[in-house]
Design brief:
alpha/beta; Rossmann fold; 2 domains; five-stranded parallel beta sheet; 9 helices; 16% strand; globular; binds NADP nicotinamide-adenine-dinucleotide phosphate
């Protein structure tokens, strides 16, 4: 409309097959919505200095509005330092401390893609959050913590569970909305789910046959709950659509639109 095409740069270091799939999906999404996408595929031997230099170059590129560094990075690289080097206005993953802080305060430009995609699904299906018992299993900076914060912003009564949580089954059974972000295949079983609960499966795992599956034992849980998200499908595509939205927003902010 303004003659400007939003641009997303995706940086991938090394040859992790799962990361490669995620990066390809993000590039495809850019094509579908007509955004410019640039891929920077760096060898696993890339040094911290080289990666920081690339981030700095992308920070200064006016046709690039969003920068995404695919995690996890190879072990010798400091992902925290890399994220902190991204200009917060181009941090379309919303992982930079400035953006995380804004989310805590409820005054954000960007929301982290996966939790934001989950909230959008809840809205689309008119699933109320206010006053509901929401249980999030997982406390990562990428999914669990921001997920809990977004549910809290919408007045959910939120419990965060993790590997030290005691009586996990009992806690989960209280959930009206149960979000699983554990990273363990079919971890959430039917006995952990309340009748009629809404079950959101963030997991992207591999089962014993190497087949993609979620953190929830879908086949046994599906008849007990009112809603459940499948894997594949469900949360994954919502994550990508939020990334596109964030890139568009970044473009608007940077161009004062
Ligand atoms: P992560 O950093 O490994 O965090 C996993 C969390 O699960 C941790 O907080 C851990 O607790 C907790 N946990 C582990 N074992 C547990 C147990 N036995 N009981 C209760 N909690 C336990 O993983 P992540 O990055 O958040 O990702 C979680 C899953 O989501 C993965 O399958 C990942 O592939 C997937 N994912 C999907 C998308 C998408 O777009 N769909 C996006 C991002 C991630 P501690 O903190 O105590 O260790």
């Amino acid at each position: 409309m303004h003659g400007i095409t939003p641009g997303l740069a995706v940086v991938i270091v090394g040859d992790d097959p799962a990361s490669r799939v995620y990066v390809n999906n993000k590039k495809k999404a850019c094509e579908v919505v007509g955004f410019k996408s640039e891929e920077y595929a760096l060898p696993a031997s890339t040094t911290q200095e080289e990666l920081l230099e690339l981030v700095n170059t992308l920070n200064n590129k006016s046709d690039i509005n969003g920068i995404l560094v695919q995690l996890p990075l190879p072990e010798h690289l400091d992902d925290k330092a890399v994220i902190e080097a991204i200009n917060p206005q181009k941090d379309v993953d919303a992982f930079h401390a400035v953006n995380v802080g804004k989310i805590m305060l409820g005054e954000y430009d960007f929301l982290p893609c996966t939790p934001s995609g989950v909230m959008e699904m809840l809205h689309a299906y008119d699933i109320p959050v206010s006053g509901k018992n929401c249980v999030v299993i997982g406390r990562s900076n990428i999914v669990g913590k921001p997920m809990a914060m977004l549910l809290l912003h919408e007045n959910g009564t939120v419990t965060i569970c993790h590997s030290r949580t005691q009586n996990l089954t009992e806690v989960c059974k209280e959930a009206d909305i149960l979000v699983a972000a554990v990273g363990k295949p079919k971890f959430v079983t039917a006995d952990m789910v309340k009748e009629g609960a809404v079950v959101i499966d963030v997991g992207m795992d591999r089962d014993e046959n190497g087949k993609l599956c979620g953190d929830v034992d879908f086949e046994n849980v599906k008849d007990k709950c009112s809603y459940i998200t499948p894997v594949p499908g469900g949360v994954g595509p919502m994550t990508i659509s939020t990334l596109m939205k964030n890139t568009l927003k970044a473009c608007k902010i940077q161009n004062n639109l």
